[in-house]
Amino acid sequence: MVKGTAIGPGTARVPRKMREIGMASAQLTLTDGSGSAGGHARPRDLSFELQQMTARQIWFLLRRHIKLVAGIVITCVLIVLAIQLQLPKRYQATATVQVQLNDSSGSNQADAVRNQQRVANEARMYRSQALAEQVVRDLKLHRNPAFNNGVTMKVPLAASHLLNDTQVASSTDSDVIDITVQSGDPELAARIANRFVQSLQKLRSERRQVWRDEVTRALANEAGRLSSEAWRAEQAVADFRRDHAMPVGAGSAEDYQQMNRLAVEAASSAALSSGMRAQAAGVSSAAGMRTVAGATSPALDNLQRQYDDLSRQRSEMAVQMGANHPQMQALTAQISQVSNAMTQERASVIAAQQARNNADAGRERAMAMAEANAAAARAGQLQARLNDITSAAFRNNANSVDLSILERKAEVARQAYLTTAQRAQTVRAELESTGVNSTMMSAAPVPLTPVAPAPKKMALAAFVGSSMLALLIVLGIEMFDNRLRSGDQLRRLFGLRTLAMLPGLPDPIGPSIEENPVVTEPQSLFTEVARNLASEVEALPRLEGSQRVLVTSPLPGDGKSSVALTLAAAAASMGRRAIVVDLDLRRPGPSVLRSIQDNSNLPDLIDVLTHSGETRKLIPQVESHVEHDPAYGAAPAALLPVVLSTREQIRNPAALVQGWQVARLLDELREQFDLVVINAPAILAVRDARTLSSLADSTIMVVRWGSTTVEQLRASLQMVNNQVAGAVFNQVDYEEHARRGYGDAVQFYMGSAAYYSDSFPVRQKWTKAASDRVRRVFTREAA
Q1: Are residues 627 and 574 in the same domain?
Q2: Residues 414, 500: one domain?
Q3: Of the candidates 527, 587, 519, the residue with the CA atom closest to the CA atom of residue 552
């Protein structure tokens, strides 16, 4: 037989290659999303869990706390019904009011946003304490027994009582307001609802008249005071101008503008005088430059025509006659006479033209000189005026600052008076206008049917509200419940796989191996789960040869000794040689392993550690394969596990656990047994489990169902650096676990009752189960 291979009745030999694949899959199972074996404890995100919940999961969540939920719902509904049945009848009357949106002109010219604000303000007025007091005074409600239940109230207290019984509702897109009043008297409810509009108009009229008088009086006083201040300021300006000889505009920008105009005109006149004098000087020069070449006269023109005619005749006759011809000579003589006459006439014409030119030049020179003298005289007058104004302006410079201050004061006073006077007129006009008012659109009729109490409606509301409250309470309980109950919690929070969920036993395990449920009840649910645990442990990674498994728990009392014994018994029933080495030496009281040690003939653990190398002599050899007796049903003694513990408490257990003898003993036991189960102390109590984990192939954490908390397991995993192969739930209440509906295989264990020899509870319908619970409760109370 090859060591490390589990062979039992009805099982086949597993090839080495298949075991390696099983080890790899087990390692993958122990690896969380970060890739580290065992996983790290992740914080619980309840909001994410709630978002991922389905309707069925919520139903199972409520079913876990069905008693609490039913108690909350029934209590709330009964309380509401009791209160409703004791309440007096209440009647409700509703009056509809329309808001008249008018401005100072008597029409509505505002936009939609402004109108909505006006309607909201009007509704706020109907909810005000002042209007409620006015209604109380108008209807004398503080003295009405139907309103105050026969107790005389003060007006403010009655108004507060009225506001509690009144509801004012308005919509954003309408100008209608609904006023709803509740009262024990139907006629009084209708009267109160219809009185609100008249009381508001009366209250608004009184307050508007008082306000109008106060505002008008204040504005009139202020306008009179500002008028006096403006008159005094303007009188101060006038007195200052009179005292300093400063007419309006003196010392201001107008003086400088006038000075600039005079300077420009003086400069223009001086330039004109110089130009005219230059023109007069140039006329004389221009007179000699005038030409007389074009001068002529009628006589000169006649002589020129004669000369031209004679010259043409001589040219015509010169072709026919010679130069010595008498006619030619006569014509030549005439031409000479005419030429001399022309020369004399031309000289007289040029002389006459020259005389006329000289006369014109003299006249022009005289006119230019006259204009130059006039321009020079005007320039002198303007310069003198400019000098006078400049002197006056410089004299007023010292007074300009004071005059400006007085003028600013006068202007401020005048503007303040005008603004106040205009404001007084505007306010007076606004106060006289109608503004925003309300009119009765539909009067409230006298109600005939009471609106309260409403037991059915309130009971339904109480049922819905209490159900929501119960759901919130259940969620709160689940949020703060840190006890571990399902393998999904281990996988989600710690990345830890669940090897088995051992059901709780009604009686403790007996003080001998033969009384173990795995031996006495081989077909029970407990035995089947134990065998599954042994199979899961066999598939865990290990070294060549036998397998050493360390069993520990966060705190004492979690049942790790029972789990270790059960694991060894299940492995032995499957044909493996198993031994339990009890190294929980710090526990002072008795335990199941010590009890078995007391009832056995095996040597004490201390004796085995003391006699080094004699383990085979002290511990009997166990066969690895023994057939079961089908007729007997139980496993023979040869297949029972070996328990090695102490009969008495050790004085110094820490030195013994950390010594070399324990490692030697475990090495020797590896040669004799296929499975060595090490029962270590609680990991949060002492350090022994962390020390012993290095001697084992795998570490198994025992978690007590419904008792071990998340913090305890997280701290335990941190103590061993998360080197845990898996966890075993102990003392699992299968019926309660199935009722809670965690969605794992335990939820359906009752469907497999035919396979086990246990007596399972019979399934009942929920109605019959509820009636049985109620009957048990009343029976218990009667007893």
Answers
A1: yes
A2: no
A3: 587
pLDDT(286) > 60: yes
Q: Is residue 421 within 8 Å of 305, Cβ to Cβ?
A: no
With respect to residue 687, please indicate whether it lies within any of the assigned structural domains: yes
pLDDT at position 61 over 70: yes
Is 653 inside a domain boundary? yes
Contacts of 699 (CB under 8 A, 6+ apart): 549, 550, 552, 693, 720, 723, 724, 725
Confidence of residue 247 (pLDDT cuts 50, 70, 90): low
How many whole angstroms separate alpha carbon 513 and alpha carbon 572? 11
Q: Are residues 404 and 524 in the same domain?
A: no
Q: Under DSSP, is residue 316 helix (H, G, I), strand (E, B) or coil? A: helix
pLDDT at 630: 45
Who contacts 366 (Cβ-Cβ below 8 Å, separation ≥6)? none
**pTM above the 0.90 mark?**
no
3-state SS, 451-492, equals: CECCHHHHHHHHHHHHHHHHHHHHHHHHHHCCECCCHHHHHH
Tens digits of per-residue pLDDT, 76-134? 999 999 998 888 888 999 999 988 876 555 555 557 788 888 888 889 999 999 999 99
φ and ψ at residue 551, rounded to 5 degrees = -115, 120
Residues 6+ apart with CB under 8 A from 363: none
Q: Is 690 inside any structural domain?
A: yes
Tell me the residue range of the domain where 388 lies: 253-433
Q: Are residues 268 and 342 in the same domain?
A: yes
CA distances, 299 to each of 207, 311, 335, 346 (Å): 119, 18, 16, 9
The CATH number linked to 518 is 3.40.50.300
Q: Which residues pair with residue 133 across a beta bridge?
A: none
Answer whether residue 118 is part of any domain.
no
Residues 668 and 529 in one domain: yes
208 φ/ψ angles, rounded to the nearest 5 degrees: -65, -40
pLDDT at 363 over 80: no
- Indicate whether 509 and 611 sit together in one domain: yes
Q: Are both 375 and 503 inside the same structural domain?
A: no
Q: Cα 628 to chain center, whole Å?
A: 71
Reference 674, options 745, 590, 527, 571; nearest CA is 571
- Give the pLDDT of residue 325: 78
pLDDT tens track for 679-724: 998 998 888 888 888 888 899 999 999 899 999 999 999 888 878 9
CA separation for the pair 247, 413 (Å, rounded): 22
pLDDT at residue number 500: 92
The residues near 595 (Cβ < 8 Å, ≥ 6 apart) are: 511, 512
Domain total for the chain? 3
d(CA 661, CA 585): 15
Lowest-pLDDT choice from 12-16, 170-174, 178-182, 624-628: 12-16
- Looking at 655-771, which runs of residues are DSSP E strands? 675-679, 698-704, 726-732
DSSP conformation letters of 703-723 = EETTTSBHHHHHHHHHHTTT-
Give the closest residue to 270 by CA, choosing from 373, 157, 121, 385: 373
